[in-house]
Amino acid sequence: MITRRTDLALEAKEIYESESGSFLEGVKIEKKELENCIVTIVDVLDDEGAKIMNKGIGKYITLESDLMKYSDDDSRNEMISYLKEELSILFGDDKTKKTLVIGLGNWNITSDSLGPKTVSKTLVTRHIFRNYNKDYDDDFTEVSALSPGVMGITGIETSETVKSIVDNIKPDRVVVIDALASRKVERVNATIQISTAGISPGAGVGNKRKALNKEYLGVDVIAIGVPTVVDAATLTIDILDVAIDNLIEQSEKGQQFYNMLKDLKEEEKYSLIKESLEPYDKNLIVTPKDIDETIENLAIIISEGLNKSLHPGKK
Asked: Within 10 Å of residue 145's Cβ, how many Cβ atoms?
């Protein structure tokens, strides 16, 4: 089972294959290389694959692109088009389906505010459909949205809030947006994961709550997330690996010691670093310093990707 902190199925696959030296059973991989975006589909097919990956059964579509790091209109619009394409495939052509968008996270913590920020920019139409007693429109579908906050603010489990709303308004599907954690620094704020397997609120900061998935909510659940943080222990390992490589190249003395460190398995290094960080904060996470501007840009990309895929008439 994958124990390193990552919410990305693609990274869980990479970690397993790196540690075991073998390919994953019960998992199917498909890769598409577009002009400025790499799309990888990790399809967890059975319980065995789910157990090894520590992920639910379902599809995990990962979009990797440096376009997400730029806030100019051209870069942003190109990324929106890639996201819209993948979401449109998942949503299908049925315009009568009703969608509830849930923005998970704490709006008071910037790196965890992606969900609420995205919801604030999502085009909601349920009230219009209700007012005009409509079930269908050529240009728009029925969409509602909510940011339920976190239990530390509301005193209510997020899953309970979402379940109550689903039972009341009866959407055909729920789209959940949340901030995630990555294994690799280069994927932070440069990756979007879309999953059909649901999501556990708080997973990105190591505080998993009850999962929001089809089994619990009774409707299809599509989770959209961006890794906005990286585990401090993971970051330290990456830096240590680079330092060891440099020391091996530059020093003839102590090469045996450096080679011994280099040959440590990734899990062994992770445990060592975790223990070293224990006196400071065992759950320490790191986020880039420009996170304010980045979250705003990511919220625009995801909300517009949603708007364009849910509303055919949206330009």
From this structure: 22
Helix axis angle, 9-20 to 266-277, nearest 10°: 120
- Please identify which residue in the block is written with the tokens 């304010």: 292
- d(CA 190, CA 170) in angstroms, rounded, equals 34
CB 205 within 8 A of CB 5: no
Domains along the sequence of the chain with CATH: 9-233+285-310 (3.40.50.1450), 234-277 (no CATH)
Bridge partners of residue 269, in order along the sequence: none
Name the pLDDT band for 20 (thresholds 50, 70, 90). confident
CA distances 52 to 27, 56, 182, 184, 230, Å, are 10, 10, 18, 20, 21
> Rounded distance, CA 237 to CA 243, Å?
10
Give burial (CB, 10 Å; 0-12/13-18/19+) of 314.
Answer: middle
pLDDT tens readout for residues 150-161: 888 899 999 999
d(CA 146, CA 120): 9
pLDDT at residue 205 is higher than 50: no
pTM as predicted: 0.84
Q: Which residues pair with 174 in a beta bridge?
A: 100, 221
Parallel/antiparallel/unpaired status of strands 173-182 and 99-103: parallel
Q: DSSP 3-state helix, strand, coil percentages of the chain (rounded to 5)?
A: 45, 20, 35
Average pLDDT on 73-92 reads 97
Quick one: DSSP state of residue 205?
G
